[in-house]
Amino acid sequence: MAKVFGKAQLAFKIESTPGSFETLSTSEVKFPVFDLDFSPDIEINEREPVREFFGPDQPLAGTRFASVSFKVEMAGSGTATTPPPWGDLLKACRFAETIDTDNVNYDPDSSSESTVSIGILRDGIMYKIAGATGSFNIIGEAGKPAVIEFTFVGVYLGYDDQSLFDATYPTVQPPLVLGASIDIGGDTPIISKFEITVENENSKEVSCGSSSGGVRTLITNRKISLKLDPEMVAKSTRDWFAKLTGTDTEQASIQWGSSAGNTFTLTMPSVKVTSLGDAEREGIYVNEVEFMVLPDSGNDELEIKQS
Question: What pTM did the predictor assign?
Answer without folding.
Answer: 0.97
